[in-house]
From TrEMBL:
This is Non-catalytic member of peptidase subfamily M23B. Residues 34-96, 178-226 form a coiled coil. It comes from Shewanella litoralis. Residues 255-270 have a biased composition (Basic residues). The keyword Signal applies.
């Protein structure tokens, strides 16, 4: 039985291997582009204009790398959820099997006792009892007793038969669930390998990008571009949010909300970032892959990659309030989705060119950034 399960799982694995050809081709293409850009940087390092062009190419390549990571991480997350569901199902089936086996054993014992009683009682000849002119009332009672035993015996046989059928069904479901589990384990290993490859490609791209940002001037310019990109997205989100007038906002939630993920506060709202640029939100250092939760109910109005902030998700809470979650490894919700407070919406990552994993978190009111610490405890 176990051998057949592994054979089937191996066949499934063969099909899964074929499915990763496109991913490998895309990765090879981005590796080739990175080598080409790196060669040009080495040749043109002295030219600021050319370096800026290469930086833009690297940022676009970083975007592709991080989007690929997000896709791979989402698949890993989905397969983990599927594995948990299948394992839960297997535990339930195992419990059912134990209970049904115990029921079957009990029913067999009951039936055995009934058959023994019927055998012992079978020495009585009803005709002789009548001819011997035994008391009719006694004969009637005996006949009723034998009929009762016979009916009970038939019912016990039916119950035992049904229990045996149910037990067989449970065993078949266990086999099917085990096959599915084996296939999921193989698929998850493949997804984890793909995620590792994508992360390696991103690391190379990020190294080259950081070389083009070696000066303070270049770094400041980059931050200004990123801030402008975020401002544009917030303005677009405000336009979208006007279509959701029924939500209550966050005005009554000061000091009541939970932080979207557990972590250490590494950057505080309003602290200096570079030059005159200050942090418009808070950064929470947290393990990669950790869940990020919606701080309040609302509607997702943006979910995509944003320069400098990586994979970003924005939730409209109504009355001009919105929350923003950046640097995610992957996003678990799409624009238009309604989410509830405490619902998982993304996973912690380091997208947007970050060297360490964490969450960038903002709360805005009518487009203006406010200190998240006023609302979260």
């Amino acid at each position: 039985m176990i051998t057949r399960l592994f054979v089937k799982a191996s066949i499934i694995a063969g099909f899964l291997i074929l499915s990763c050809t496109a991913n490998s081709a895309d990765l090879a293409s981005r590796q080739s582009a990175l080598k080409s850009i790196q060669a040009q940087i080495n040749q043109q390092q002295s030219s600021l204009k050319d370096t800026a062009k290469q930086r833009e190419k690297l940022i676009n390549l970083l975007k592709s790398d991080e989007q690929a990571i997000a896709k791979a991480a989402q698949k890993v997350n989905q397969s983990q959820a599927s594995l948990a569901a299948v394992n839960t199902k297997l535990r339930e089936l195992d419990k059912q099997q134990v209970e049904l086996a115990a029921t079957k054993s009990s029913q067999q014992d009951t039936l055995s006792k009934q058959l023994s009683s019927a055998y012992l009682a079978g020495n009585h000849d009803y005709t002789k009892m009548m001819l011997n002119q035994q008391n009719p009332a006694t004969v009637e009672r005996m006949l009723a007793y034998y009929q009762f035993l016979n009916s009970a015996r038939i019912q016990a046989i039916k119950q035992l038969k049904q229990t045996s059928i149910d037990l067989d069904k449970v065993k078949q479901q266990q086999v099917a669930s085990q096959q599915k589990l084996n296939a999921l384990v193989i698929e998850q290993k493949r997804q984890a390998q793909q995620l590792s490859k994508e992360q390696g490609q991103r690391k190379q791209t990020l190294t080259q990008l950081q070389r083009t940002l070696s000066s303070k001037g270049a770094e400041l310019e980059q931050l200004q571009i990123e801030e402008a990109s975020l401002k544009r997205i917030v303005q677009q989100a405000m336009v979208t949010a006007k279509a959701n007038p029924t939500m209550d906002g966050l005005a009554n939630q000061r000091g009541k909300l939970k932080w979207p993920t557990k972590g250490r506060m590494s950057k505080r709202f309003g602290s200096r970032r570079s030059g005159q640029i200050v942090w418009k939100g808070s950064v929470l250092s947290a393990p990669e892959g950790q869940n990020i939760y919606a701080v309040a109910s609302g509607k997702v109005i943006y979910a995509d990659w944003l320069r400098g902030f990586g994979m970003v998700l924005v939730i409209d809470h109504g009355k001009g309030y919105m929350s923003l979650y950046g640097h995610a490894q992957t996003l678990l919700r799409q624009p238009g989705d309604m989410v509830k407070s405490g619902e998982s919406i993304a996973l912690v990552g380091s997208s947007g060119g970050q060297s360490e994993p964490g969450l960038y978190f903002e709360i805005r009111n009518k487009g203006q950034a406010v200190d998240p610490a006023y609302y979260c405890r």
